[in-house]
Amino acid sequence: MRSDAGARRRAGCACQCRRVAPAQGGSVSAVLSLVRPDLRDFAGYKSARSEALRGDVWLNANESAWANPADGEGRSRRYPDPQPPALRARMAQLYGVASEHLLVGRGSDEAIDLLVRALCVPGQDAIVITPPVFGMYAVCARLQGARIVEVPLVDGETGFIADLDAIREAVLGQGAKIVFLCSPSNPAGSAIPHDGISALARALDGKALVVVDEAYGEFADGPSATTLLDTQANVAVLRTLSKAHALAAARIGVVIGDADLIAVLQRCQAPYPVPTPCADVALEGLSDAALTQTRERVALVRSERARLHAALERTAGVRRVYASQGNYLLARFDDAERAFRTLLAAGVVVRDQRAAPQLGDALRITVGSPVQNDRVLSALGEDAAGGASAPTGLVVVGAEAPPTETMS
């Protein structure tokens, strides 16, 4: 007699996966129509923590009965909840959405990978990206076997701008399933107008998912694209605790979108994506007191961004500094290699962007603390002055006095 497990193995599936019941009447929503047909009723792996069971002796996951000596409170002995309820609820509150519209995962990177794997059929579907831009969109597409369609940012008087008309035509002409819009753009720093994102999503309704990566959204002026979710099911938003919230090592990010899409992504997600220690520190980092301090630091970064921008523009050898809505500045240099080496010699590490499209003379400088920013200005100012020695950390002459940390 042939078992179900044996049938699955002969069909190429040796996992403990299941299938969910199809929609009533066989109908598929507009957003689910973008999901790979073979994954629409895929139920994923059934872990020990995915069942709503109650008891006081837990012997269903082959865990140790004793805590590790290094784990004093025994918090890491058990597998964590796949979606820690308290953290999910707190992040939903933070971003102004309902919990069912949000999936917590291993930074924004996992969300990007999940979206590409869930929507793109290998060797058939495509994504659209806007270089120069964050490299993980292309990496995930390459690993999935999805085509990559590039619509470069346009370098103009106001900075690098996304050509939304060209993006729309590329999607329709190439049959792309996903458009990745990085806003604020990394590394360019420019933000995409909210009404432009809305218009693009309407034009691509039922044809492609518009993913807005807002990793640096806390530093920007405009509203979040999450405000479009009520009217546009084909919009998804990426957020992270790695930047403004200073929890990069915790690796906590979310994808926010239509509840049906979020459910599909959760079924495609590897088991136990949020380790308990990471969930604990993230929840503590989102307390009211922590959020107050985060807002104060964001305000300081925005102030320092303006100061650093103005000072760099006055620094000899700096050809152009782009306006930025992120916590970084993109700058072109007469001699980017020399500037990069000068900063390294002063102990300052910045991101060399010269291998990126259109950026053969550019460096990206994170806006740090006032003292760290002064180190940047001092090093570049000394180099422009011919290497005059001045104590590291002093403000370069002419700079404003300071007020009372693949492309990541």
Characterize the structure shown.
This protein has 408 residues and is an alpha/beta fold. The protein folds into two domains: 80-286, Type I PLP-dependent aspartate aminotransferase-like (Major domain) (Aspartate Aminotransferase, domain 2, 3-Layer(aba) Sandwich); 291-384, Alpha-Beta Complex (Aspartate Aminotransferase, domain 1), CATH 3.90.1150. The protein contains eleven helices and 15 strands. The chain has helices at residues 4-10, 85-95, 107-119, 136-144, 164-174, 194-203, 259-268, 276-285, 288-313, 336-345, 370-384; strands at 17-19, 42-45, 102-106, 126-129, 147-150, 154-156, 159-161, 176-182, 209-213, 235-240, 252-256, 318-321, 328-333, 351-352, 362-366. The strands form four sheets. It has a seven-stranded mixed beta sheet with strand order 3-11-10-9-8-4-5, with helices on both faces.
Short characterization:
The chain is 32% helix and 16% strand.
Percent strand equals 15-25%
H/E topology pattern: HEEHEHEHEEEHEHEEEHHHEEHEEH
Helix proportion range = 25-40%
Distance between the termini: 53 Å
CATH class category name of the largest domain? Alpha Beta
Structural category is alpha/beta
* Cross-sheet strand order for the largest sheet: 3-11-10-9-8-4-5
Supply database-style keywords.
16% strand, seven-stranded mixed β-sheet, Aspartate Aminotransferase, domain 2, Aspartate Aminotransferase, domain 1, 408 residues, 2 domains
